[in-house]
Amino acid sequence: DDVTLLQSAVLDQQSGNRTTGLVHTGFDDSTLCTAVGVCLQFLDFCSQQDHFQQLIQALAGLGQNDYLVIANAAFPVDAGIPVIDLSLIEGLPTLEQVLDVVASELELDSAITPSELPGADAACDAAVAAALEGKKRKEVMYEQVKVLAKHARAVVRTGDCRPYASIILLAAGL
User: How confident is the prediction for the chain on average, in pLDDT?
Assistant: First the structure.
């Protein structure tokens, strides 16, 4: 009898004689936020996995002196150039974080950086120099970096919002 009374109370609460559903139609803020947060984290993880695969393919496909651009979030990219968008949130990942990973996996010949970078962000410029580990580095005006980027095999977009936080890497030959 206790079970029957409990079922009856649940049926009345759900407004009908049909069985209770697995999903409540009302909103419970904490439950909804948790479910949406977990769902978004899962989608973000899946999306990042796709971007990781794209990055691996881009690195593997580079030939001698091919350009790979690591660019800030506002960097313009021409249609037809593959874009690997790693941006998570504003500011992340930074140019330095992506460059450290890419430079450790890619045999670099040299790099092209904006000549405005040292004056705009000395810490970023120092981190770029450290990541390049003595590789040749050519500095050109930022507008020229954007023109040269039109010849890139791929652009890796970061979440970095700092001006001039972009670099062109030239792959070394085998």
Answer: 80
